[in-house]
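so my prof wants the structure for this chain in the tokens format not the other one, which i didnt know existed until like an hour ago. anyway here's the sequence
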Amino acid sequence: MIDLESIKEAGLTDGEAKVYLAMLKKGQSTVGPIIEESKVANSIIYRILESLIEKGLVSFIIKEKTKYFKAENPKKIIEYIEKNKEKAEANKLKIEKMLPALIAIGDNEGKTSVQVYEGFKGVQTAYEHYYSKLKKGEGIFCWGIYPEQEERYHLYWQRDHTRRGKLGIFSKMLFNKGTDRTILKNRNSYKLADARYMPTDMKTPAWFMVYKDTVIITLQTKHEMAVEIVNQDIADTFKAYFDDFWSKSKHFK
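here's what i got, hopefully its the right format
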């Protein structure tokens, strides 16, 4: 009894197995009878035959300008399996040699990176990294936002909120007490934005932002700078602080 599945497990596709068996039955034959016996589509028969020839399971001759195909002895299937075993073993040895380098690539994702950006443009660069990591429905979390900022920053944030909203990324913001109410009113006017006052009187010159595995600490005073920390554990820690502040905050009215 012929088991088609066993032949396929030797490394042949369903079509290749059917064509090979059909050719064993037909002997030396042109394409027409092979198609009729194997029931494979006319559009793929030549591709299958070429593949079987490459595997050493089929040969052909030309008689009076017509190609005749013939299945090689079934023992060739065993030779094909053995050859594939040798290739697989050789590939296995190559992969084993590459393992340290491959593992190192994977480990890079879990490592911490810290980058410092300076100046107005530098702060923008660090801040805008969230665009490359977040998708629609995800968001950024900011708190301790300084009450006094230069006008150029306000204009920049407004442009950013417009862009962010169009992308479907939400923003939750906690401003230090003392921030002009018109600023919070403006921020809340943008799509997917929720701006509130901090639930504490504590004020610091730097403010914080967290999303995904990233924390940004920004200083907008005389020496403008942003420190970007990429580390999931650190980001989770900062997010926990934000969540605590947020749970105690009130909707802006």
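also thought this was worth mentioning. The mean pLDDT is 88.
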